[in-house]
Amino acid sequence: MQIILLHARSTAAKSVTLTHRHLLLAMLLFVAAVVISALLLSYYTFRHAADIKSSFVRDLLSSATQDDSSKKDKFVRENLAAMAIKLGEMQAQLMRLDALGERVQGLAGVKPEEFNFKDVPGRGGAEAPPPPHRAEKTPHDLSMNEFQKNLNGLALDLEHRSDYMNVVETTLISFKVKSKLLPTIQPVNVSYNASGFGWRIDPFTGRSAFHEGIDFPSPIGTPIVAAAGGVVIAAEYHHEYGNMLEIDHGNDIVTRYGHTSKLLVKVGDIVRRGQHVADIGSTGRSTGAHLHFEVLVKGIQQDPHKFLSAGAEQARILVTDAGSSKVTALAVR
Predict the structure, then answer these.
(1) 172 in any annotated domain
(2) Does 214 reside within a domain?
(3) What is the tally of structural domains in the chain?
(4) Are 311 and 185 a contacting pair, CB within 8 Å?
(5) How far, in Å, CA of 260 to CA of 3, rounded?
(6) Is 289:215 a contact under the CB 8 Å cutoff?
(7) Could you read off the pLDDT of 281-314 as tens digits, one per residue?
(8) Residue 330 located in a structural domain
């Protein structure tokens, strides 16, 4: 494009040639001028909106403010609804965790006054600036995103702890059941035995013979209790043991009670730990009223004293109450 310029005082005409580059540059300058003018006008309008008495400007400013506030309110409401749902889930998890904690507490023998799951633990400390090696993080108010992140992390921790408590409860229950199936309580309430486990002089032959159990002397009719819970697998007369009773406690452990005067249970009965199952007598190969007591593991006689000593040791465990010097004996039930 060529532009010819004429002037009355000038006899010669001047011409200016405009290329596409010149036109593009002019358009860019025009667009930039329009944008800058619009920004300046917007800044001036919102900066001095209170001084401008135009109702149109006030309505425009009010509409923009209300729209922004509406978006913020909607965002807060949506986040509050989500956090309320998460809070409800966490409350349900806490109730389940409290119930689990109380059961585990009872199984472990921890007293409620020593540790209570429902009590809020005390916390405190001085408010001080962070140490130099942690100066990159300064105290500040939590943002909505940070609060949501902490809430999600807490919910995940609660779930993990609940799973862990379930495992602990299962383990404690299994341990308690197994402990009840070990023959650790003395079958007769006497303070001594007439003959222990091992080599002795046989009272009938006078020769050295191996005694496969413990003899508890006591008058005829004295109650005999099960040394542990289990199932009766034999209740019969034996030519050596007389009226004999055998109880299977699981894990290949069997207890045998010989020379009884009366059997109070039959084969197939389930007996509990400490249940009265027979009475002392002097039947079979016996020189007087007593109980012959054996413990067999995988069919082989073991020293019953090892099991009974373990039970007696548990019965003597002392528990010191927290915060006092009171000591109480923990009885094995």
Answers:
(1) no
(2) yes
(3) 1
(4) yes
(5) 136
(6) no
(7) 999 999 999 999 999 999 999 999 988 887 766 6
(8) no
Q: What length is written for the chain? A: 333
- Domain range spanning residue 302? 198-315
Structure confidence by residue, pLDDT tens digits, 177-228: 666 778 989 999 887 788 889 899 888 888 989 999 999 999 999 999 999 9
Q: How open is the CA angle 239-242-247, to the nearest 5 degrees?
A: 110
The answer to whether residues 181 and 231 touch, using CB atoms and an 8 Å cutoff, is: no
- The residues, any chain, with a CB within 8 Å of residue 28's CB and separated by 6 or more, are none
Long-range contacts of 106-114 (CB under 8 A, 24+ apart): 107/169, 107/172, 107/173, 107/176, 108/172, 109/319, 109/330, 111/321, 113/321, 113/322, 114/321, 114/322
Query: Both tokens of residue 85?
Result: 């749902």
Name the pTM for this structure: 0.50
Q: pLDDT digit string (tens) for 153-186?
A: 877 777 777 777 777 777 666 666 666 778 989 9
Q: How many Å from the N-terminal Cα to the C-terminal Cα in the chain?
A: 112
Residue 254 maps to a domain: yes
CATH of the domain at 246: 2.70.70.10
